[in-house]
Design goal:
The structure is a homodimer.
Chain A lengths: L2 H15 L1 E3 H8 L3 H13 L4 E3 L2 E3 L10 H18 L7 E4 L3 H9 L7 E4 L2 H8 L5 E4 L2 E3 L6 E2 L1 H8 L5 E5 L2 E3 L3 E4 L2 H13 L2 E5 L11 E4 L6 E3 L10 H5 L3 E2 L1
Parallel strand pairs in A: 4-5, 4-9, 5-6, 9-12, 12-14, 14-15
Antiparallel strand pairs in A: 1-3, 2-3, 7-8, 10-11, 11-13
The first copy, chain A, binds a DNA duplex (30 and 30 nucleotides) through helix 3.
DNA sequence: GCAGGTTTTGCAGGTTTTTACAAGGAATGT
DNA sequence: ACATTCCTTGTAAAAACCTGCAAAACCTGC
């Protein structure tokens, strides 16, 4: 990997996550920590980030006060994303929905991963677009301002023509009896279509949404292959899903 | 292998993979690394890529290149954008391409304008998305990393089904004799399709691109309705276009 | 066609950049 | 206070770079 390329990656990571650790960068990029330190030093001199003991912080981080609850939820999504990333292998076709968890997943994609991502979520597409080795296919249609994803007949039709290896879905409610539920008719249509097309369906959700119900039924648990939460996979709340034949991570 | 041929290959590789190594190019093309270095040097001076220690990076790594940009060009684009905005009326369907001028246009849209914008440019879509009263239709297809717009048969087919009121096109070269020209085959296809579909075609360009030529022909001047530059509309350089029947602003 | 100039390329040399490792000192956390 | 982690400094080797030069290929005007 080229030096400038590496530094661009570091700057990108800092801007996304507001902090980076020298150790994790070192193992991610596979260079010595000395090199990372020298990079951070240099980028710091150029004002790209703030170097601190153990890593670096983003400039915008300075202004941020500590809203402890928000940071907590974000960390959870980060944990989920890091588990999810492990499932993606080189060359795969991956279909993703929208939502903050999916964005976090997009930000955690390793630099050397080369795969094709398909999505109608504009924020997700923007993240994929910045990744050097990922091909992006945009699902077009009318853009929903709320969810920032494209919704409509065109999007549905396009998804029906695909057979992606994986489908990552951020979900709003999951329950052992009612399966996956949601509260937006058009989004539900889209999710159903995505589930039907994909070889393997992976649901991402924070634990607080487990055993909650929303008004519209998306799919039964039988259609779900993997469920990822921030909890360890032997947590009691997850056991009913394991019993239902879902792989829990 | 000829020098120009070799350099074209290098540019192609950079656009494809976002980076190239001097060593691998040297063995691929079977010339000395010195020659590759000289090529990279030259291409870098022509702005085709960014030369770095060990190889070169594509411009999409722009994050790392330190700010030495002239505000001059940006101000010009702002002037153009403000002229262009006046053409858009409530309820119109507007098709737009990509490029920095179009982004500037997107940022200048008045808050109370309610219209429908159609685009395959991700940065433009992001801008439209933040506007309260604008409906956005995203043109989907494979995302080109360089131009950050969707390109391909799907995009072309979708545009053919539309009949937008206006089409705003950022152009790279315009000449009284050769009309509009460009340098990317796929982008040209898209622009041609956009022009053919639209009721009214409005070209945006900074004055320095007037009377320049690029290798691929997009369209004749007869297809253009309005040309917008940062110059006053009685500027001598614009008069040939007025004489050709184009409204100049 | 051919003398005189330019362009292109590879090579030899010396210089700079980049990187990993090592060892001792500073910061951090329990 | 202690162990751990992280930082600094120095070193050395590899890689990449630059400079100048000369051979080859090429244009050009007569």
């Amino acid at each position: 990997m080229l030096k400038r390329e590496r530094q661009a990656y570091i700057v990108h990571q800092v801007n996304l996550h507001n902090k980076v650790l020298s150790t994790s960068l070192s193992s991610e990029i596979d260079v010595s920590e000395d090199t990372i330190r020298r990079d951070l030093q240099e980028l710091s001199e150029n004002g790209k980030l703030i170097k601190v003991h153990g890593g670096a912080l983003s400039h915008s981080f300075h202004d941020i006060t500590y809203p402890s609850k928000k940071v907590y939820a974000k960390n959870n999504k980060r944990i989920i994303a890091e588990k999810a990333v492990k499932l993606i292998k080189d060359g795969m076709f991956v279909l993703t929905g929208g939502g903050t968890t999916i964005i976090e997943l997009a930000r955690c994609l390793p630099l050397n991963l080369s795969a094709t991502f398909i999505s109608g979520s504009i924020p997700a597409v923007v993240e994929y677009m910045h990744h050097p080795n990922i091909d992006v296919i945009v699902i077009g249609d009318k853009l929903s301002k709320n969810s920032k994803i494209t919704l409509g007949a065109d999007a549905l039709a396009r998804i029906k023509t695909l057979k992606p290896d994986l489908c990552f879905l951020g979900i709003n409610a999951i329950d052992i009896e009612h399966g996956i539920t949601d509260n937006d008719w058009d989004v539900v249509q889209l999710k159903q279509s995505m589930i039907a097309s994909s070889q393997k369906v992976i649901c991402l959700t924070i634990a607080e949404k487990i055993n909650t119900i929303q008004p519209i039924h998306v799919t039964d648990l039988s259609e779900i292959d993997i469920l990822i939460t921030e909890l360890p996979n032997d947590h009691p709340i997850l056991q009913p899903f394991v019993a239902a034949g879902i792989t829990v991570m």
